[in-house]
Design goal:
- The structure is a single chain.
- The protein has about 280 residues and is mainly alpha-helical.
- Helix content is about 65%, strand content about 5%.
C-alpha cells in the first residue's frame, strides 16, 4: 500500500545552529578553509606577542617557515597517496555507526578546503616575506644597524619577485569563474607553473643561505634548515606518482554521444574514492 504524501510524518525542524552549519556558505570545504586561516592567524598573533622585535632576522625566519609550512600542506593534502589514505580511512566506518558520523565522513572529498586555504595563506605570507626582502635589498634606512639588515642579493630578490608573480597567476587561474571558463588552461598553469614555483623555491632557499655568508657543509645546511626538509618531502611527493606510472591496456566504449566507459585491465580494483582513476578526468 502506497502512503499518500500528505500523511507522511516529517521530522522536527533542526535548531538554528544546526541549520546554519548545513548552509552552503558553511559547507565542509569552507570550514576547512576557515580552519587553516585561523591556525595561521593564531600562529601570527602568538609570534607577534612573543617576539622581541617584528623587524629582525627572527621575524624573517618565522615568515619564511610559515610560507614553506603552508605550501607543504598545500601539496601534501593533494598528493594521490595521501588522498587515497584519507578516502580509505573515511570508508572504514562500519555501517552500524550513527548516520550523523558517517555523513561527516562522507564529506572527505571536501579536503580541497585545506589545499586552497593553505595556498592562499602561503601566498599572503610570501607577499609579506617579499616586503621584507625588498626593504632589505633596497637598504631602507630604518633597517640600517639592526639585525634585519642582511644585504639580500639581487638573485634572491628577483627570485622572490618571480615566485610572487607566479603564485598570483596560479591563484587567478584557480578562481571559480576563471577555472570554469578556462579549465584546460587552469590545469596546465596549476601543474607546470606549480612545478616551476617549487624549483624557484629551491633556488631561493639556497640563495638565502648564500646571502647569510655562513660557511656550512651540506650536512649542516640540511640539519639546520627546516625548509630544506619540507622542500625535499614536497618534491618527492610530487615525483612519486609520476615515477610509478605504468602503461596498461584500456578498453573504451561509447554507449551514447556524451558517455565514454573506460575499462582498465591491470588487475587492481580501485576502492571508493581512490585517485587511481584521476588520469581519466585529466
Amino acid at each position: 500500500m502506497v502512503m499518500h504524501i500528505e500523511n507522511t510524518e516529517l521530522p522536527e525542524q533542526q535548531k538554528l545552529p544546526a541549520r546554519l552549519l548545513k548552509h552552503r556558505a558553511l559547507e565542509h570545504y569552507v570550514r576547512l578553509f576557515i580552519m587553516v586561516v585561523l591556525v595561521n592567524i593564531v600562529a601570527a598573533l602568538d609570534f607577534a606577542v612573543s617576539a622581541d622585535s617584528l623587524v629582525s632576522k627572527d621575524s624573517v625566519a618565522f615568515i619564511n617557515n610559515m610560507v614553506v609550512a603552508n605550501f607543504f600542506v598545500t601539496i601534501i593534502v593533494r598528493q594521490q597517496y595521501i588522498i587515497n589514505f584519507l578516502f580509505w580511512l573515511a570508508t572504514r566506518a562500519p555501517v552500524t555507526w550513527p548516520l550523523s558520523i558517517r555523513w561527516h565522513l562522507g564529506k572527505v572529498y571536501h579536503h580541497g578546503g585545506m589545499h586552497t586555504g593553505s595556498a592562499v595563506c602561503g601566498t599572503i605570507w610570501f607577499a609579506l616575506l617579499l616586503g621584507f626582502i625588498t626593504i632589505d635589498y633596497l637598504g631602507a634606512d630604518f633597517l640600517r644597524g639592526t639585525e634585519a639588515a642582511g644585504k639580500v642579493s639581487g638573485l634572491t630578490f628577483w627570485l622572490a619577485v618571480t615566485i610572487m608573480a607566479a603564485l598570483l597567476v596560479i591563484i587567478t587561474m584557480a578562481l571559480p569563474e576563471v577555472r570554469k571558463k578556462h579549465h584546460n588552461q587552469f590545469e596546465m598553469v596549476h601543474r607546470f607553473v606549480g612545478w616551476t614555483v617549487l624549483g624557484l623555491f629551491w633556488c631561493m632557499t639556497l640563495s638565502q643561505i648564500a646571502d647569510a655568508s655562513v660557511a656550512m657543509t651540506v650536512k649542516e645546511m640540511v640539519l639546520s634548515q627546516p625548509s630544506i626538509w619540507l622542500l625535499s618531502i614536497m618534491t618527492f611527493s610530487i615525483l612519486l606518482p609520476w615515477l610509478r606510472l605504468r602503461k596498461v591496456p584500456v578498453e573504451i566504449s561509447t554507449p551514447s554521444s556524451h558517455v565514454a566507459l573506460l575499462k582498465f585491465k591491470y588487475g587492481v580494483t580501485p576502492f571508493a574514492g581512490s585517485s587511481m582513476l584521476s588520469a581519466v578526468h585529466h
